[in-house]
Predict the structure.
Amino acid sequence: MTTKGTLYMIPCPIADTNDVYDVLPAANRRIMDSLDYFIVENTRTARRFLSRAGIARPIDSLEFVELNEHTRSEADIERMIRPLEEGRSAGVISEAGLPGVADPGAQAALAAHRRGIRVVPLVGPSSILMALMSSGQNGQSFAFNGYLPIKEPERSRAIRSFERRAMTEGQCQIFIEAPYRNIKLMQTMLATLSPRCILTIACDITSPAESISTRSVEEWRRTSLPDMAKRPTIFILGI
């Protein structure tokens, strides 16, 4: 009977400006060195990450398959997982941060579980959790909501809904946005939220330009907004 392979969930740095091992444990390299098959969100960025990580195998000897918004069917994911049923191990790599968290790599992990394949998470940075841990907001009860609706009035309704949850349940609400829409989202939140709500803005987590600030909405309205244009940013709403 063939022993099944292992699916490793491999974090990568959030920012490209750091040395890989400034933010990842050196022990991760041993796992990466052992693999020649990777399920990735983007082949180009995965190759660049593995090259910067200094893995032992030549990059051109590795096999990459892409799992992202263009993956069309369950059959495509099954084909990606099949080598693991035959004994080959694989690594899942997101474009940044933790695979499977706000990331399509979760589909590979679920497919592996359904087939009795071991899934092993490696240690690495999550901008979501790093923003929360430095925010001063409620780390006992929180929800990650991904992206809010782009268009009005759906966006303002969503913001008010999460504000009610924060106020009634004490649960802080975490959002992300495409960097080029950060300023518009911030403006909408300041126009919509109660002055006493608490809002954390965390930009460029782990990079030298990292900026994390927590203020009430009333204080944000009186303060110059941080430079958020085109910067990866986490928003946390609480009371």
About this structure: The mean pLDDT is 94. Residues 156 and 192 are 7 Å apart (CA to CA). The first helix runs from residue 20 to 23.
